[in-house]
C-alpha cells in the first residue's frame, strides 16, 4: 500500500485529523495530536494497514519559537509498507497521548524523547528520565537548552568547539 492510500484510509476513518503540510516527504503524514491514540490503534489493528512494528520515536525542535515535534516511524512487517507520523506540539506545553500500551517498545522511546526534549507522553505508565539523572535541569536536545555549569558541585564539561576544547 502506498502513502496516498494510507493517508486516504486515515482521512476516511478520522475526518479532519490530518494537517496539510507541503514540507513533508512522501512517506510522512502530520496529524492533529487530539486524534493520535485512536489513529495509532487504527494503524496497528486495521487489516489493510497492520502497522505491527514501531521502529522509532524521536523528537524534533523546529527552532525559532516553532513547535516541538514527536515523530513515529511505523512499519508493517506483513504488508511491507511504512509511514512516518508527525505530531507538532506547543513548545511551552508539549503533550501528546502515550502509545506505549499499543506498541510496548514505545515505553523506552517515549522516555528517551521526554528526557531529551521534555515532551510529555500522557498516560505513560512510567514516564521518567532514562539518560540524564532525575534532577537534571532542562532538555538537552532543545535548541534553546542552556548547559548547566555545575551538577552537584562538579563542573560540567563544555561542548567541543570547532577550534578545540574551551
Task: Please give a structural write-up.
The protein has helices at 3-13, 36-45, 106-117; strands spanning 18-19, 28-31, 53-61, 68-76, 81-89, 95-97, 120-122, 150-151, 154-155. By secondary structure, it is α/β, with parallel strands linked by helices. The protein has a single domain, classed as NADH:ubiquinone oxidoreductase Nqo5 subunit (Beta Polymerase, domain 2, 2-Layer Sandwich). The model has no long low-confidence stretch (mean pLDDT 92).
Please sum up the structure shown.
The protein is of the alpha/beta class and 166 residues long. It has helices at residues 3-13, 36-45, 106-117, and strands at 18-19, 28-31, 53-61, 68-76, 81-89, 95-97, 120-122, 150-151, 154-155. It has one domain: Beta Polymerase, domain 2 (2-Layer Sandwich).
Q: What is the fold-level CATH name, i.e. the topology?
A: Beta Polymerase, domain 2
Q: Mean of the pLDDT scores?
A: 92
Q: What percentage of the residues does DSSP assign to strands (E)? A: 25-35%
If helices are DSSP runs of H or I spanning 4 or more residues, what is the number of helices? 3
CATH superfamily: NADH:ubiquinone oxidoreductase Nqo5 subunit
Ends apart, CA distance between termini: 52 Å
Structural class determined from secondary elements: alpha/beta
Spatial strand sequence of the major β-sheet: 1-2-5-4-3
Count the domains.
1
Low-confidence stretches: none
What's the shape? elongated
Helix content: 10-25%
Itemize the secondary structure elements and their pairings.
Elements: H1 3-13, E1 18-19, E2 28-31, H2 36-45, E3 53-61, E4 68-76, E5 81-89, E6 95-97, H3 106-117, E7 120-122, E8 150-151, E9 154-155
Parallel strand pairs: 2-5, 6-7
Antiparallel strand pairs: 1-2, 3-4, 4-5, 8-9
Amino acid at each position: 500500500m502506498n502513502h496516498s492510500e494510507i493517508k486516504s484510509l486515515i482521512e476516511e476513518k478520522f475526518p479532519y485529523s490530518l494537517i496539510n503540510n507541503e514540507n513533508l516527504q512522501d512517506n510522512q503524514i502530520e496529524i492533529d495530536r487530539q486524534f493520535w491514540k485512536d489513529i495509532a490503534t487504527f494503524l496497528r489493528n486495521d487489516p489493510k494497514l497492520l502497522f505491527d512494528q514501531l521502529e522509532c520515536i524521536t523528537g524534533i525542535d523546529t527552532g525559532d519559537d516553532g513547535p516541538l515535534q514527536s515523530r513515529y516511524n511505523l512499519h508493517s512487517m506483513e504488508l511491507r509498507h511504512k509511514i512516518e507520523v508527525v505530531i507538532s506540539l506547543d513548545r511551552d506545553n508539549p503533550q501528546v497521548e502515550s502509545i506505549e500500551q499499543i506498541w510496548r517498545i514505545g515505553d523506552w522511546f517515549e522516555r528517551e524523547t521526554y528526557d531529551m526534549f521534555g515532551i510529555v507522553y500522557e498516560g505513560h505508565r512510567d514516564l521518567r528520565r532514562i539518560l540524564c539523572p532525575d534532577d537534571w535541569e532542562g532538555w538537552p536536545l532543545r535548541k534553546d537548552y542552556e548547559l548547566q555549569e555545575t551538577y552537584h558541585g562538579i563542573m560540567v564539561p563544555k561542548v567541543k568547539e570547532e577550534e578545540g576544547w574551551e
